[in-house]
Amino acid sequence: STNLMHGKRGLIMGLANDKSIAWGIAKACADAGAELAFSYQGDALLKRVKPLAESLGSDFVHPCDVGDEASLDALFAEIEARWGKLDFVVHAIGFSDKSELRGRYVDTSPANFRMSMDISVYSFTAVMQRAEKLMSDGGSAVTLTYYGAEKVMPHYNVMGVAKAALEASVRYLAEDLGKDGIRVNAISAGTIKTLAASGIGDFRYIMKWNEYNSPLRRTVTQEEVGKSALYLLSDLGSAVTGEVLHVDAGYHVVGMKAPDAPDI
Ligand code: NAD
């Protein structure tokens, strides 16, 4: 535990349960002294999110469906009313119809393409439009992406296209907001078994493949993503913006199956 985030107030978006990547990040920030607010997607999640928030000393939980502009406005109005300002934001949200996270990318439907881009890409920009106004002393934002943005991964399909657009939006946001001392970065996380990940076809196989072939010969934990997020969100990362930081046990540097990898 450190004092790195002492006096800093941050919003965590995308907590669904204690397997969520958002949970690993929230724990790391709280452990370093941050004060946290949590947004959750809908009423069904409140019973999970509220006790998790309480366990980190937060009673600030607020609903927000990022597909709804009014819902985003209400969330940020509440942050302004309670805190008056914001120091950091974590966007750990993505969505596609899981029927299109298998089979061929070429078969993506227009409705799911638009929805995936709206929820998984545009929502981060919509969040930063609002966060900018509250980050009067500068700030730091982190979103979550995946290697399927850079290379074709089985079944990732429309989410790969969405993550590529998300990573590009991180660079444009970093430029627009940098003059105001607001840093914008992404973490490209290795595979972690979460609710969202279980919607991806053959996810267990992809996990095993990463375990056998990453330089560290293992997958990563939410706690490890949390520690890297803490670096980007805190003063440790003060000169880092527009970056996509791979927290993936090194998987992204590998070009071929490891010679010692067992068959799956
Ligand atoms: P998760 O299911 O725990 O979290 C996904 C969150 O997105 C949930 O809290 C869900 O409520 C939220 N969400 C979906 N649609 C929403 C909407 N319309 N409004 C508000 N919230 C909405 O899964 P996770 O794996 O922790 O996912 C977090 C992020 O990490 C996602 O962007 C995901 O793509 C990314 N990621 C995950 C992995 C992995 O292997 N799990 C790897 C790399 C990147």
From TrEMBL:
The keyword Lipid biosynthesis applies. One of its GO terms (biological process) is fatty acid biosynthetic process. Keywords: Fatty acid biosynthesis, Fatty acid metabolism, Lipid biosynthesis, Lipid metabolism, NAD, Oxidoreductase. Pfam families: adh_short_C2 (PF13561). GO terms for molecular function: enoyl-[acyl-carrier-protein] reductase (NADH) activity. The keyword Lipid metabolism applies. Pathway: Lipid metabolism; fatty acid biosynthesis. The active site is at residues 146, 156. It is an enzyme of class 1 (oxidoreductase). It comes from the Bacteria. NAD(+) binds at residues 14, 20-21, 41, 65-66, 93, 163, 192-196. It catalyses: a 2,3-saturated acyl-[ACP] + NAD(+) = a (2E)-enoyl-[ACP] + NADH + H(+). Its EC number is 1.3.1.9. PANTHER family: ENOYL-[ACYL-CARRIER-PROTEIN] REDUCTASE, ENOYL-[ACYL-CARRIER-PROTEIN] REDUCTASE [NADH], CHLOROPLASTIC. Belongs to the short-chain dehydrogenases/reductases (SDR) family. FabI subfamily. This is Enoyl-[acyl-carrier-protein] reductase [NADH].
